[in-house]
Amino acid sequence: MRKLSIAAIFLMFFSFSAHAEKTELTKIIEKLTPLEGTVPAQWRITWIGDTTTEATISWTTAEEGSTHEVHYGTSAHGTDVSKYSDKQVCQKNGSYDQGKSGAYYHHAVIKGLKPATVYYFVLRSDGETSRQFYFVTAPEKAAKFSIIHGGDSRSGHLARCRVNMQIAETVKNNPRIICLAHGGDYIVDGRIWNQWRLWLSQHELTTGEDGRVLPVIPTRGNHDPGPIYQEVFNIDQGAPDWHTTQLGSDVAMVTLDTNVPGGGAQSEWLEEELKRLRPKSTWLLTQYHRPLYPAVKNAPAHTKIFAPLFDQYNVDLACESDGHCIKRTVPIRDGKADPTGVVYIGEGGLGVGARTPKANLWYFDGGKTGKGHHFMQLDFAPETLRIRTILLGGEVFDDVELKVRN
Amino acid sequence: MLSSFTKPEWIRTLLVLGLLIGFVGAFKPVVFNGGSPMAKYIAKQSQLEMIAEEEVEDYFEAALYGEGEIQQDVIESVTEPERQAVVERIFLLDRWIVGLLAAFALLLLFPKLLNETVVRHVLPVLSLWLIIQAIGTTLNGGKKFSDLAVFAHATRWALPMVLWLFVLKPDNKKKSLGAASALTHFIVVCTSVTFAIHGWEALMLNPFFQDLIYGFGSRFNFHTPPDVIAALLRVIGCMDLILAVLILFYRKPTVFLWMAFWGLITALSRPLAMGVDAWPEVAMRVANFGLPLLLFIIYRTPGRLFPQNSKSPTELTYEKA
Fold this sequence. Notes:
The complex is a heterodimer.
Chain A: H1 2-31, E1 41-46, E2 49-50, E3 55-61, E4 68-73, E5 86-89, E6 92-95, H2 96-99, E7 104-110, E8 118-125, E9 128-129, E10 133-136, E11 145-150, H3 157-173, E12 177-182, H4 193-203, E13 216-217, H5 228-232, E14 243-246, E15 251-255, H6 265-277, E16 283-287, H7 303-312, E17 317-320, E18 326-328, E19 332-333, E20 336-337, E21 343-346, E22 368-370, E23 374-380, E24 384-391, E25 396-403
Parallel strand pairs in A: 2-14, 11-12, 12-13, 15-16, 16-17, 17-21
Antiparallel strand pairs in A: 1-3, 3-7, 4-5, 4-8, 6-7, 8-9, 8-10, 11-23, 14-15, 18-21, 18-22, 19-20, 23-24, 24-25
Chain B: H1 2-5, H2 8-32, H3 37-50, H4 53-65, H5 80-107, H6 111-114, H7 117-120, H8 122-140, H9 149-152, H10 154-168, H11 182-203, H12 207-219, H13 226-249, H14 253-274, H15 279-283, H16 286-300, H17 313-316
């Protein structure tokens, strides 16, 4: 009898767990847009260049369609496209994976926006209209705003979805967050469309219930080779994957590519950019995939090329991914701890399984390491930059503040 | 001087030293960088299995894209701490395996123990371990040319195998490493494969190789232009490929000496470009110049220890000698 009772309790427990998990998955699925016909799905905004006046709005349809346009303006009009003040026909349409995917991308580059302004928009493909979305352009100058940085969403679908939903929740509670800087490794193998397809669908979960879309500043990771990455983020095929995103006139994020040589063309470009940006930037940030001061793996060859330039031009913060852990180094200059140096944060936790960092490395003596799914919230102000590591569940794991350089 | 190095004891000692240095290089990342490539792959796959990744993926694809049928009972049955515990056990086992292999490898320093079956038969296990790690590198992916790791690492995993075959019949001086012996052919082929893959990578302008050249120049405040780096790599790639093919048909000591020198330079290029912290990169590539050096010694000394014109290949294999 006793054994029977125990068995019954176990059975009830497992049935309950199965039901609970199924409910979670079902709830997630219900929030996502099935890919069918010309219904706009997998929407995202890419921020490269001047984010006070420009944005690229993109989406996917299952069928090619013929007319794809964004209706937008500074007032909300729901799905009544005729009431929006502006319209942009997609400048670029095509089939993902260079025509092999059976799904279609549509990119509308919209320009002439006003800084620090809410823009409402709907997507329309051959008469199929999306719900109303909105995003906020970056402020022009010296304003207070925040961004989220994270990387490595490449495996762990449920964890990826949970982190995405938490990002949406965090933005809801902190409306001053204006974008997500993704440090790369979106999926396991960037050459496979089916993996991108899932990432794109699950990325919808970063959209708030009120339709707030968080623009992405993309970075190519080592698991993202091939043409689809550029098709997803509207980067010209063959163009370099390094770029600058200007978040107003005094905050800049320089994105680098650690999959190609750091030396030569990339370091020349980097030096020019840092030289141009440093004098006018209150906060100068870099992001790239492979960490220069890693918490798990070996340092790449890029360390000897990028880090001296970061030192020379006094980069404030370097955002890294790839290690699947949490880290914040002490300020580093010339390969040594130095209060005037660059702080390196990140290592990626947007879904991928966590690894154990090497906490005893010299550059963590005074810094912080840990493991767990997370993202980092960066709060910019004219005098300070606050960096918070937020774990899945909302707990703040690390909270520090950088002072502006004199 | 050279003749003393051609004695079997010396050859054996050099091989053992090369093997130990190579293993220090290979073991260091395992102990200090979170685990061997294969352990990382197994840990990753275990984690994915425990979170029912495949089933969840099928569920999404069925629900969102109409592919397949929706499975009703997709659950994560293992908690996060339990998953971490499994992963930690995998890496603990990984360290134990490495520790045991390292301990056995150290025993090789004692020549008398080489004749002990239990010690010498660890050598093929070491070789197998290196092959498995190369496969792990391929499976993990995420690096350019990682698909070719097993072939690129041919000299690494061949070195313990060569030593194993060499010590099987330590007294058989004439038929051990002759110029036409099966074992020597094996060394030549492995060296050729490693050079061919590295040559191909150079020809395809492997980004890491580009940064090695750039990083080396930067140490002397010289910024090598990208087109110069590309030209250099193409020349290097062609040279490596020519050498790889050449030694299959035309074996001259000077060619092997050059390959040994070049293998040393390319191994040293890591710390030269990236700093002394990259010393394990040299250590794990000791076979890249060690095996060509061994071939140089073999072909440099015809008629002394190793007969140049042996008659029957089968006669020259260890088991059948």
